[in-house]
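Margin note from the TA: students keep mixing up input and output lines. Inputs are the sequences; the output is the structure of the whole complex. Example:
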Amino acid sequence: MTTVRIFFEKRGEAAYISLLDLQRVFHRLLKISGLPVWYTLGFNPHIYLSFSCPLSLGQESICESCEVKTEAPAVDGDAWAAALQPLMPRGIRILRVAPAQDKPGEIASAEYAITMPASSAAALDAYNERTGAPVVKKTKRGQKTLELKEYLPRVEYQLEGESLHFTLTLPSASGEGVNLNPALLLGFLETLGGAPAWQCTVLRTHLYTKNGKDFC
Amino acid sequence: MPEVVNTISPKLREALGQVQKPGRYTGGEPGCTYKDKSEVDVRMAFCFPDTYEIGMSFLGEKILYELLNRHENWWCERAFMPWTDMKAEMERLGIPLYCLESKDPLTDFDIVGFSLEYELCYTNVLAMLRLSGIPLRAADRDERWPLIIAGGPCVCNAEPMADFFDIMQLGEGEQMLQDICATVEQGKKLGWNKETLLLALAKIPGVYVPSFYDVRYLEDGRVESIRPNRPGVPERVTKAIINMDDYTPPENFVVPMVGAVQDRASVEVLRGCVRGCRFCQAGQIYRPFRERSPQLISDSARVLCHNTGYDELSLTSLSTSDHSRLEDILDGLNSWAEQDHVSLSLPSLRVDNFSQSLVEKTTKVRKSGLTFAAEAGTQRLRDVINKNVTWEQIERGCRIAFEEGYTSVKLYFMMGLPTETLEDIKGIADTAQKVVDLYYSLDHAKGKGVQVTCSVACFVPKPDTPFQFCAQDRRETLREKQKYLLSCVHSRKIKVNYHDSATSVLEGVFAKGDRRLGKVIETAFENGAFFDTWEEYFDFDRWQAAFAACGLDPDFYNYRPLGLDEVTPWSHLDVGVSHGFLVREYEKALRAETTQPCNRQCNGCGANKLLGGPCFDYSQDLL
């Protein structure tokens, strides 16, 4: 049995598909594709399907992935991608299909490209001058306060016409480790006079493993 | 497919960032149709006046979406009523209501069509027009506005909404809507004005142009006459119907990503109903009974499951077990379902022909609950309403179900039925108790109890049924009956569900109302009414104020029995069933006499004239 990882982009309209809905969509589209994916063996057999590091609603990504299993002796990634792409909803583009090399537990951090209106520069400057930036993180087990500065002491940005850009690398561990959403920073910046979240775009560009390589 | 990143405008992005379930407003689902709008001649916005999750459950839209989009030069898209948070955002940001596929506002379309499935969605229609910036009343729109049309079962009494629509479709849309689009295409090419277009549309079978009819009233408020006010317009509009085997059921669905209420493949196996339950509007207005052939059902269902990726298939109709070849259908479906990882479900089975082999053929995969519609608590009242079901049949059905391992049964009842007494109400509790007792009299898994749920709805007399002549029970009476019913239930194994009757009151008024009610609907809407189907937004006081402001008495419409010779507000709309038949059935009901299902014996309802011949070959033994 081989674990196959499907990498895809989730942009535009597709940014508004929630994880729960995305699972259902992939389940159906894999079924339509007729690809030799493995079905679980229970009373109601269903396709084994698992997403790593789900993205927040409204954020975009060029490095999403999910994994399925197959009993096929060889996996022709290009053929799988070609079978899946025409079925996908608007905004989802299959990037690559290949046997999985890393386990999802290996994921340690994620890189994001953030775009904000240029008027938010003052808020970023204020952030960089502060010594502390406490934020409240809501989890299923309740709220806890985190110190953003521990992870992001400074944010260096570039102004470009009407907007400004910067790149963030945030811990993104699955399971017990710390997992930070860029929305926490954007929310904090808003309290400093930064633009509201809907005026910002968040694009996840990389998922990295513990040893700093791209998750694959 | 066009390249898509960034089809979302900054304003829409802002709105989507503020609302729950933004996926309802983005479109892009698998199965959507996209076309180049510069290359299409007719654009239709198919609007469902309720939320995305409900609208996407509606089979009619899927049928018509596929049929229209098969025409290369027509493009049918979808719009739904945004939930209150999104509606508020759209109003705040000045985003007009748009179709999900192109994101173009409804004003860019040639035809804006609404499906009228239930009376309480009427204010949502107005809300959607307002969100689009389209004038509400047909009289205020010339040919520069889209043609605003309606279809669906509520059109059988179109009058309360008649002021708002340019045309309304009576009957089945498969052919009619294509004819409408073709006529609109022709009108656009020839530069017709609205009057010319409406006159051409009025010639299409089933099309009703409300502005071409004048309604006169008697002094006491009843309708005196409804007459066409132009030459070449029919005195009565006759419902459009199709032959079920002339139309392949949809082989592709737009598959919602945000879960719809009915999120599965479904195929319609028959239309109409042979039963003739006297309270049931669907059983009358979808006549005559027509079956689809097993081969066509099985073949197109398989393609549908393949194209959509659904793993659950539901057979839909008013009464699936009345298909004369149901076993053939199930054998056909079972020949591929398992290997395609598809499970079957059959809603709408009847207790009286619910068989062992049927259960076995449908419960291969999953056991859900079972529902039996008894409708009334005593045999006398079941005879009155012509629900030809006996306690013995209910018992048999439950016995089979319990022996198959089911432990929960749901029973449907109504209260407020004509001739009903407290004894009939007590009968509901007694029936439920007998089902509980039956369970414990049989071998059952140790420690496993039974749950019997009684769902008790308030009866609303509907037009085109034998009970259209009846007055609706008053709200106070229904409340007393509900209280009495609870006092009759003595077991914890029985759960009784019922609703407050305020929405039923309004439903009754609009079901049997006339054209004057348009201004009541408009007034209530202007005073803030929408999403009346949703209890948390329904405000009965607002409606009462609207009636008062318009000088109309709601009680006149639903608490007054109709004379058998009275001109009804829907008398010019012919659904096939004759007035004489309805009177006969009403009189039989008062005598508690039943009528045979029409596959056993023709009862002369008149709907067969739509087919041009008898509905059944009575020389053969059909049962």
